Amino acid sequence: LCVVFDEFQDVLKIGDNPWGVLAEMRSTIQFQGDTPYFYLGSVRNEMLKIFSDPESPFFKSALPIEVGPISPVDFAAFIVRRFKAGGRKVTAEFAAKLIGFADGVSGDVQELCDALWERTDDGAFIGDADLPAAMDCVFSREGGAFEAALARMTTKQMRVIRALAERQTGSVFAGDFMKRADMTNAGAMKKAIDRFVTDRLIFMKDGVYRFSNPFFREWIKDRFG
């Protein structure tokens, strides 16, 4: 028997005292030495907080293993094979473009491929010309959630998220980005960025704030472009 917790970082959202919840779990798990536990999470900083913060009841209680992205070459070849098996064609170059759009996140690549499949016919040779229809397909599925995310933002925050959609950057306090977002107050900019990170709309990777959902980024560009 193995026990697997997916998106384990969400335990931090339970109640007013997540450390108490973790302490209760640890008090039971530590006596189950013959049962392996796996804690999976997609929010790296929160997972680090659980397992690397000395105050956490789970401090150093598990061996951390970071799973990187699938090899782009292998992933592109897989996409080509799967479309071919279904009677449609894509080039390896186009498959690589889909992977790049989704920053290698397999679930987002799968969603885009599914939308391309839905909006094309049997025997089709799928390429760039099919992307707008595929995006419209995704927008029709997720548009309600995107609208709800915007509805929770202030006018200033909406200007910042639009600027980020136009150009993802880590230099959000630089003069050119502040101007692009029509912001003059660095404190307001920090508040907006912190809010987006907390709501998991964006995250920092390689020194750049990126959208957690690339389709949300494209939806904003499509709506306000």
Describe this structure in words.
The N and C termini lie far apart (52 Å). α3 packs across α4 (92-101), α6 (131-151) packs across α10 and α7 crosses α9. With 225 residues, the chain is mostly helical. The protein has helices spanning 18-29, 44-52, 72-85, 92-101, 106-118, 131-151, 155-166, 175-180, 186-198, 214-224, and strands at 3-5, 37-39, 202-205, 208-211. A two-stranded parallel ribbon has the order 1-2. Strands 3-4 form a two-stranded antiparallel sheet. The longest helix is centred in the middle third of the chain and has 21 residues, at 131-151.
SSE arrangement:
Layout: E1 3-5, H1 18-29, E2 37-39, H2 44-52, H3 72-85, H4 92-101, H5 106-118, H6 131-151, H7 155-166, H8 175-180, H9 186-198, E3 202-205, E4 208-211, H10 214-224
Parallel strand pairs: 1-2
Antiparallel strand pairs: 3-4
Helix pairs in contact: 3-4, 5-6, 6-10, 7-9, 7-10
Task: Please summarize what this structure is.
The chain is mainly alpha-helical and 225 residues long. It has 10 helices and 4 strands; from the N terminus they run βαβααααααααββα.
